[in-house]
């Protein structure tokens, strides 16, 4: 537990000597109730919040009035700020004596480029603290009632990035299959390539998959179908980002109501 006197409650613009500190803070998958207490406390006290596009507006609304909020949203087509520029911004603000809350969707160290931001700060002599967040993989699994591990179905879980850069054959071989659950981030645009690769690797076309769109948000959708129909499902349902693809038998374990909705959706 964090007391008021330690780092958990102290990300205001107060000066502690010449150099500020950067907190890399996970904002969780969307629902503000899924913030950690430490993240909420930092956000409530912060004088400067640098946030990315995945952070839900309802969470940004928790920042204190008058706080400086800087969006460094990235999208596939338009990068508002390149990663190097984000790193430089964090470093320059800290060197100017400002404490910075760097708020990132999910967990900062799961496909969030938090590692690069931490490295940049450390290289510049800026102190960094990391506050974990509930990654969207866990948020989506909970919200859609998909147990990522299950005594009868899966004892290995893999988190994989599905954007083009990570799509080599070697990366995908053996990731899904008996006893395994595969969770794919950033895979909506490449869903067809992914299912082709997995089936070429021997995965049965009827292995169940779930697509969880906008997990934990009010407009969340859970869509289900067989692996062979993944690309069609994504296209016919016009799945929007952010969404996760979960592949494996555990996706058949979900709540009946959600499954009924999904069957409707795939018809
Ligand atoms: N650090 C984040 C992941 C950043 S990569 C985390 O731990 O969750 C961005 C990808 O995360 C998106 O393309 C999507 O695949 C996934 N994602 C993030 N938030 C999501 C949400 N609310 N619902 C579904 N997928 C989400």
Automatic annotation (TrEMBL):
<keyword id="KW-0489">Methyltransferase</keyword>
<dbReference type="GO" id="GO:0004851">
    <property type="term" value="F:uroporphyrin-III C-methyltransferase activity"/>
</dbReference>
<keyword id="KW-0949">S-adenosyl-L-methionine</keyword>
<dbReference type="GO" id="GO:0032259">
    <property type="term" value="P:methylation"/>
</dbReference>
<keyword id="KW-0808">Transferase</keyword>
<dbReference type="InterPro" id="IPR014777">
    <property type="entry name" value="4pyrrole_Mease_sub1"/>
</dbReference>
<dbReference type="Pfam" id="PF00590">
    <property type="entry name" value="TP_methylase"/>
</dbReference>
<comment type="pathway">
    <text>Porphyrin-containing compound metabolism; siroheme biosynthesis; precorrin-2 from uroporphyrinogen III: step 1/1.</text>
</comment>
<feature type="domain" description="Tetrapyrrole methylase">
    <location>
        <begin position="21"/>
        <end position="230"/>
    </location>
</feature>
<comment type="similarity">
    <text>Belongs to the precorrin methyltransferase family.</text>
</comment>
<dbReference type="GO" id="GO:0019354">
    <property type="term" value="P:siroheme biosynthetic process"/>
</dbReference>
<dbReference type="InterPro" id="IPR006366">
    <property type="entry name" value="CobA/CysG_C"/>
</dbReference>
<dbReference type="InterPro" id="IPR000878">
    <property type="entry name" value="4pyrrol_Mease"/>
</dbReference>
<dbReference type="InterPro" id="IPR003043">
    <property type="entry name" value="Uropor_MeTrfase_CS"/>
</dbReference>
<dbReference type="InterPro" id="IPR035996">
    <property type="entry name" value="4pyrrol_Methylase_sf"/>
</dbReference>
<keyword id="KW-0627">Porphyrin biosynthesis</keyword>
<protein>
    <recommendedName>
        <fullName>uroporphyrinogen-III C-methyltransferase</fullName>
        <ecNumber>2.1.1.107</ecNumber>
    </recommendedName>
</protein>
<dbReference type="InterPro" id="IPR014776">
    <property type="entry name" value="4pyrrole_Mease_sub2"/>
</dbReference>
<dbReference type="InterPro" id="IPR050161">
    <property type="entry name" value="Siro_Cobalamin_biosynth"/>
</dbReference>
């Amino acid at each position: 537990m964090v007391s008021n006197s330690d780092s958990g409650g102290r990300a205001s613009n107060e000066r502690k000597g010449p150099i500020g500190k950067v907190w890399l803070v996970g904002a969780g998958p969307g629902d503000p109730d899924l913030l950690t207490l430490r993240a909420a406390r930092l956000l409530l006290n912060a004088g400067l919040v640098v946030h990315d596009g995945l952070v839900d507006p309802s969470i940004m609304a928790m920042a204190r009035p008058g706080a400086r909020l800087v969006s460094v949203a990235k999208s596939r087509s338009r990068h508002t700020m390149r990663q190097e520029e984000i790193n430089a911004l964090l470093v320059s603000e800290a060197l100017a004596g400002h404490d910075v809350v760097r708020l990132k969707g999910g967990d900062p160290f799961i496909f969030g480029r938090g590692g690069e931001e931490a490295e940049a700060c450390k290289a510049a002599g800026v102190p960094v603290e990391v506050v974990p967040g509930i990654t969207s993989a866990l948020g989506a699994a909970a919200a859609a009632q998909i147990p990522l591990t299950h005594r009868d179905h899966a004892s290995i879980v893999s988190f994989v990035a599905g954007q083009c850069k990570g799509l080599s054959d070697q990366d995908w071989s053996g990731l899904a299959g008996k006893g395994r659950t595969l969770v794919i981030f950033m895979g909506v645009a490449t869903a067809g390539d992914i299912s082709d690769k997995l089936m070429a690797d021997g995965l049965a076309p009827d292995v169940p998959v779930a697509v969880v769109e906008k997990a934990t948000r009010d407009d969340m959708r859970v869509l289900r179908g067989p692996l062979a129909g993944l690309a069609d499902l994504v296209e016919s349902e016009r799945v929007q980002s952010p969404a996760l693809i979960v592949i494996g038998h555990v996706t058949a374990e979900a709540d009946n109501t959600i499954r009924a909705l999904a069957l409707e959706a795939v018809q």
